[in-house]
């Protein structure tokens, strides 16, 4: 800490400041400059002399090291990991996925959710038993009954459980039933609660306050650490900004900032961060991409009926899609390393079925290719100024696919498949038409192909979009019905 004195500071003011520092058991080193005096304060706990800032003759205090000593990476360069039950969070451990309802509502609800999220690969179960609601009339949670149900779900599934604590007096009860205590955004600056959970033997999940700066958040962590609990995991859950399109603004930049300033693990909560179901999956993937050690998401068996945060809760299949996305991007993988056994060989029957799937995939690829070749051939039989494609034929095809007697696929899923096939066929047609036009006009075919690829939907685009769920069945149908959306002016026609 450096104390900068005013240029006109009197000798007795300088002495008074030195004495105030000495009263706190700290030493000052005085540097006399041409214009003013500057004092360095050394020792542990320099924060204790902050009050000298208001003394006569003092211009300003300059802090040299971080105020959050225990949380800071300055004195702890290696990343910390926090163990919750049998799950390791941070320091290079596999991405942690904490999933479960906003609030525990009933035995059936929490058990069904626990079984489902476990089956999909979640590593911890979440569920609020004491809910800090904005309205005193809203559902406040099941209280201790909710904690007991969580413990029961852990018993059956083996998933460690995390739940929010709102009252310092409840620490012992929480210690008995849950594996990790959550301090919610609304309580991030509840210093009595922070000290209380600092005395718990359970790890703490500390959410960032609604309007907290990163430094305030890390100081909250410091309260817990300095009370004797070294197991703190931070969680970015969105902050309040002027933006109204989302419930909060998920501050993803906080993740790398926090990873630079502290050694503590950090999670991202895309549910509270966005408040809208369709935004949860992309922001969960984004959280993993910016380096979060895990994500925490709300999942409910019947989201529209959820008693709290229904708008942002994922259904079971939506949570499955999110996990698929994380796996596809390889944020989730089998843990490797010493002591971890390789996954066992799948049983014979499963291997046989997978071999058949490989065979079907190869045939699908060949058929899609053949279809695209035929559509290019059809397009070549048309006059060069014959533009537009056969909307009627495409609509019929989609309707036929949707209307066919279904097996395991829904009508929407069959529509999605055919919409994707039509799109890639049209892409191939456009590329071929552009190549022909360029050849006729003297440009190299490569130029033309590149131009089309840059300006239009490439086959890869189409496939990626469908894979990412971007082409909704209704969106696809609309697109098919409107040639202008998909087809740039004078090329392409439906087979
Ligand atoms: C919750 O996790 O359900 C919750 C209330 O979160 P936050 O404190 O981030 O609003
Ligand atoms: Mn919630």
What's this, in brief?
The chain is α/β, with parallel strands linked by helices.
What does this entry look like structurally?
The chain is α/β, with parallel strands linked by helices and 495 residues long. The chain has helices at 11-23, 107-120, 144-157, 171-177, 191-198, 214-226, 254-261, 270-274, 277-289, 316-328, 348-380, 391-403, 411-441, 445-455, 459-467, 473-481, 483-486, and strands at 2-5, 27-32, 37-42, 58-62, 82-84, 87-89, 96-100, 124-126, 161-164, 180-183, 204-207, 232-236, 266-268, 294-298. The strands form three sheets. An eight-stranded parallel beta barrel has the order 7-8-9-10-11-12-13-14, surrounded by six helices. Strands 2-3-1-4 form a four-stranded antiparallel beta sheet, covered by helices on one side. Helix 3 links the parallel strand 8 and strand 9 (161-164). Helix 2 runs parallel beside helix 3, helix 11 packs across helix 13 and helix 13 (411-441) packs antiparallel against helix 14. The longest helix has 33 residues, at 348-380. It is globular and about 100 Å long. The termini are far apart.
Tag the structure with descriptive keywords.
495 residues; alpha/beta; 8-stranded parallel barrel; 4-stranded antiparallel β-sheet; globular; binds manganese (II) ion
């Amino acid at each position: 800490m450096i104390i900068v004195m005013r240029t006109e500071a009197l000798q007795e003011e300088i002495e008074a400041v030195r004495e105030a520092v000495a009263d706190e058991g700290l030493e000052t080193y005085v540097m006399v400059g041409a214009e003013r005096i500057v004092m360095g304060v050394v020792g542990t706990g320099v924060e204790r002399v902050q009050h000298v800032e208001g003394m006569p003759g003092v211009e300003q205090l300059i802090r040299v090291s971080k105020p959050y000593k225990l949380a800071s990476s300055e004195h702890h360069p290696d990343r910390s990991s926090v163990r919750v039950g049998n799950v390791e969070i941070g320091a290079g451990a596999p991405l942690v996925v904490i999933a479960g309802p906003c609030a525990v509502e009933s035995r059936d609800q929490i058990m069904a959710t626990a079984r489902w999220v476990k089956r999909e690969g979640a590593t911890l179960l979440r569920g609020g038993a004491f809910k800090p609601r904005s309205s005193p009339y809203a559902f406040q949670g099941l209280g201790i009954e909710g904690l007991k149900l969580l413990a029961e779900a852990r018993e059956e599934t083996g998933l460690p459980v995390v739940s929010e604590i709102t009252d310092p007096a409840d620490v012992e009860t929480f210690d008995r039933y849950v594996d990790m205590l959550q301090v919610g955004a609304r309580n991030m600056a509840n210093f009595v609660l922070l000290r209380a959970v600092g005395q718990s033997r359970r790890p703490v999940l500390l959410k960032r306050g609604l309007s907290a700066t990163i430094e305030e958040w890390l100081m909250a962590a410091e309260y817990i650490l300095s009370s004797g609990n070294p197991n703190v995991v931070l969680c970015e859950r969105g902050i309040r900004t002027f933006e109204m399109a989302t419930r909060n603004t998920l501050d993803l930049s906080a993740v790398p900032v926090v990873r630079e300033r502290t050694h503590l693990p950090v999670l991202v909560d895309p549910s509270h961060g966005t408040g809208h179901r369709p935004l949860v999956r992309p922001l969960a993937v984004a959280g993993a991409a910016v380096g979060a050690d895990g994500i925490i998401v709300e999942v409910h068996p019947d989201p529209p009926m959820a008693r709290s945060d229904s708008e942002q809760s994922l259904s079971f299949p939506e949570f499955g899609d999110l996990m698929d996305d994380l796996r596809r991007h390889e944020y989730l993988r089998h843990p490797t390393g010493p002591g971890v056994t390789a996954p066992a060989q799948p049983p014979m029957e499963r291997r046989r079925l997978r071999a058949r799937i490989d065979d079907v995939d190869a045939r699908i690829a060949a058929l899609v290719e053949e279809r695209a070749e035929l559509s290019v051939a059809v397009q070549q039989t048309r006059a060069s100024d014959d533009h537009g494609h056969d909307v009627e034929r495409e609509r019929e095809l989609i309707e036929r696919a949707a209307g066919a007697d279904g097996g395991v696929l829904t009508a929407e899923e069959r529509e999605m498949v055919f919409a994707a096939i039509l799109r890639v066929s049209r892409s191939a047609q456009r590329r071929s038409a552009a190549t022909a036009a360029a050849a006729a006009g003297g440009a190299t075919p490569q130029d033309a192909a590149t131009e089309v690829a840059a300006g239009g939907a490439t086959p890869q685009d189409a496939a990626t979009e469908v894979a990412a769920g971007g082409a909704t069945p209704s969106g696809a149908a609309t697109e098919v019905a409107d040639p202008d959306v998909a087809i740039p002016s004078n090329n392409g026609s439906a087979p």
